[in-house]
Design a protein that fits this description.
Elements lengths: L7 E5 L5 E2 L15 E5 L3 E10 L12 E8 L4 E7 L10 E10 L8 E8 L1
Length: 120
């Protein structure tokens, strides 16, 4: 995943299933190893969200911040930090997800890309 781009997903070359976990070695539907990565559109719909009122030590976000559960157009559902104007946010709102800066999710963990979503 490149910062500024869209999340990478996997597609099975045998049955066409889009993987929800892009680092799988096997297709979750047919167990094929014929998987290829592709960049998602980043377009999706907000399914749910939660506002955190406590800092958890992430350098990239400070409380309060909002985490959304977004169903991507390609099918998988992912969590991302929601940014921008969130007044009047509702389930079903159109969201564009992109890859943000790397964060360390907890002490001692390797850095990983943070997913960021904005209302469209």
């Amino acid at each position: 995943m490149n910062a500024g781009g869209h999340p990478l997903l996997q597609r099975c070359g045998d049955c066409g299933t889009v993987q929800e976990h892009w680092q799988d070695r096997y297709c979750t539907e047919c167990w094929s190893r014929n998987l290829s990565e592709f960049e998602s559109t980043g377009d999706g719909q907000l399914r749910s969200w939660l506002v955190y009122h406590r800092d958890f030590g992430l350098d990239s976000v400070t409380a309060p911040y909002t985490v959304g559960w977004v169903e991507l157009r390609e099918g998988p559902q992912i969590a991302c930090v929601l940014t921008g104007d969130l007044s009047g946010v509702r389930a079903g709102d159109a969201i564009r997800v992109r890859v943000g800066p790397d964060v360390i999710p907890w002490r001692g963990a390797p850095p990983r890309p943070q997913l960021v979503g904005e209302r469209r």
